[in-house]
């Protein structure tokens, strides 16, 4: 999606909100938006919360925020609590994308709309979805790996380990499918590890990396992880064996946590995917407030969608926000120029 498309969509959403406010709607100042994340354990989620809350409050809404510590039953209790507190719309990042549809049905039965956030749940009647293109995340990681292997070996060949997130999570599946398409398209690549990790655990990813290194005495050429935290677990395993260098082993992560961007700058990690948080969170807030202020209006009439995705239950109007490949060569022009981190944060003194 181009920058111009993002600006156009955001302007349209802000216009809807502004009209509602200046018309003196009964919702002005009384709109309640629930924002329920699956966890706060990853560094990025502090930014999600801050950007979402700031935008929603700017548009005249009160935000009810909570997170679920990657626990499905905890998330259900938090979701029910948001309904009890009178949320008009709930923005939901599901812990379990396979079972969260029941929560959406519960909300809809009470006249509450639900916007999916970041991870598409399946078999549930979502009103709208705001996400990054997870398949494209994996494909960018895989394409960068192919280029790295070509430069290192003179050909696209080597042993690959895929470090997946939560078992069954639609986001992890989509990112991994992007990687697997690249692996399958290159016969010289051997996938020696393809492992999911409960709770997107960095410690479990470290253990998988250690086992992979032990089981492959001739070495591993590349580790591709679905998120930053698991990539850090891989780096820790490589450091223990003196292999934490992008000249020796290709490592890719996704989420652009500060530690990982520092690893890229230091040459410990080859690439990181910058899933730009502010556009994701701000757009989700805009969509939620627009839906709350016009409860009888179809979502497609309120927001400019990029695509419609069938989640097994319904065709969901979906907005896709930008992602960027970050390498040692382009950190200054991407992460730093974009204001995500300062030069001092990335490079220190």
List keywords for this structure.
single chain; 349 residues; alpha/beta; Rossmann fold; 2 domains; 7-stranded mixed β-sheet; 6-stranded mixed β-sheet; 12 helices; 44% helix; elongated; disordered N terminus
What would you note in describing this structure?
This protein is an alpha/beta fold. The protein folds into two domains: 3-132 and 276-321, Rossmann fold; 134-275 and 325-347, Rossmann fold (3-Layer(aba) Sandwich). Helix content is 44%, strand content 20%. It is built from twelve helices and 13 strands. The protein has helices at residues 3-22, 44-58, 72-84, 101-109, 134-153, 170-184, 202-215, 228-240, 258-266, 277-293, 332-336, 343-347, and strands at 31-37, 61-67, 89-92, 113-117, 128-132, 158-163, 189-195, 222-225, 250-254, 271-275, 307-310, 315-321, 323-327. The strands form two sheets. It has a seven-stranded mixed beta sheet with strand order 2-1-3-4-5-12-11, with helices on both faces. A six-stranded mixed beta sheet has the order 7-6-8-9-10-13, with helices on both faces. The longest helix is centred in the N-terminal third of the chain and has 20 residues, at 3-22. The protein is elongated, with a radius of gyration of 21 Å.
């Amino acid at each position: 999606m181009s920058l111009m498309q993002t600006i156009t969509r955001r302007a349209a959403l802000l216009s809807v909100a502004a009209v509602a406010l200046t018309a003196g709607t009964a919702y002005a100042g009384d709109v309640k938006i629930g924002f329920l994340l699956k966890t706060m354990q990853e560094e990025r989620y502090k930014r999600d919360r801050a950007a979402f809350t700031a935008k929603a409050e700017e548009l005249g809404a009160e935000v009810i925020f909570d997170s679920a510590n990657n626990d499905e039953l905890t998330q259900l209790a938090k979701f029910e609590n948001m309904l009890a507190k009178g949320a008009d719309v709930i923005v939901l990042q599901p812990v379990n994308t396979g079972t969260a549809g029941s929560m959406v049905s519960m909300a809809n039965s009470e006249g509450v709309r639900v916007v999916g956030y970041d991870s598409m749940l399946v078999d549930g009647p979502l009103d709208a979805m705001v996400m990054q293109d997870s398949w494209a995340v994996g494909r960018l990681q895989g394409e960068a790996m192919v280029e790295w292997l070509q430069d290192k070996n003179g050909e696209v060949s080597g042993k690959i380990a895929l470090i997946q997130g939560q078992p069954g999570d639609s986001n992890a599946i989509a990112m991994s499918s992007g990687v697997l398409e690249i692996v399958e398209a290159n016969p010289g690549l051997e996938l020696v590890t393809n492992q999911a990790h409960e709770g997107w655990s960095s410690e479990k990813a470290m253990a998988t990396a250690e086992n992979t290194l032990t089981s492959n005495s001739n070495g591993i050429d590349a580790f591709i992880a679905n998120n930053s935290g698991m990539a850090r677990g891989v780096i820790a395993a490589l450091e223990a064996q003196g292999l934490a260098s992008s000249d020796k082993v290709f490592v890719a992560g996704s989420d652009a946590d500060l530690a990982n961007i520092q690893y890229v700058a230091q040459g410990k990690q080859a690439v990181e995917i910058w899933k730009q948080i502010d556009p994701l969170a701000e757009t989700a807030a805009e969509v939620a407030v627009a839906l709350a202020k016009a409860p009888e209006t179809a979502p497609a009439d309120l927001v400019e969608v990029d695509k419609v995705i069938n989640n097994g239950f319904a065709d969901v109007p979906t907005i896709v926000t930008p992602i960027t490949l970050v390498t040692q060569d382009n950190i200054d022009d991407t992460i730093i120029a974009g204001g995500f981190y300062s030069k001092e944060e990335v490079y220190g003194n």
